[in-house]
Amino acid sequence: MSNNSYNSIAGKSTERIIAISDGVFAVALTLLVLEIRIPAQNELHSEQDLIQLFISLAPKFLVYFLAFMTAGIFWMGHSAQYKNIDDSDRNLSWINLIFLLSVTLLPFSTAFLGDYITFKFSILIYWLNIFLMGILLYINWLYASKKGFIAKEKFSLVDTAIRSRIIIAQTLYFVGFLLCFINNYISIAFIIIVQANYAFAFIKEKRKNK
Fold it and tell me: Which DSSP letter does residue 58 get?
């Protein structure tokens, strides 16, 4: 009886979910830049040597930008969901916590990709991280919908948009991963282009101007 009573009251606060989510995203975004470590160099004899050392960090900066965009887009997606989710329970709270687990893996998958950017396996690991984040965010919305945690007037306006955005994005990310079998940098560039469009809606803006 007491267990049922506890289950009925636990995890009811969407404010706490939003607070911990924002905190985890903030930490993950901070940790990303810490993975750009200056390589050890005992023999620097000129400005040119230092410049070459800096240039050698270019792949790390590329991956950092990629991961920062990834985290930002998923933070926006999470925010959009909880703008419309009015209630919660312990299951939704745990779905969100598992989603945040996938967010905390982003610094690792980013560092792994940065260190082994010429290997397809590193892109696979990064893509799997993105895929896990997308699937869990989709499950989060499905569960909230099923439990009636979204007001009907809100649900009818945003449900299709939220679901289709995740599905289309994940499809494009998968295409980006497959491009690594052509060239790793083409794969990463494609994912960055997809993310830039989702961040700034270039295609949508062009359509509006027509």
Answer: H
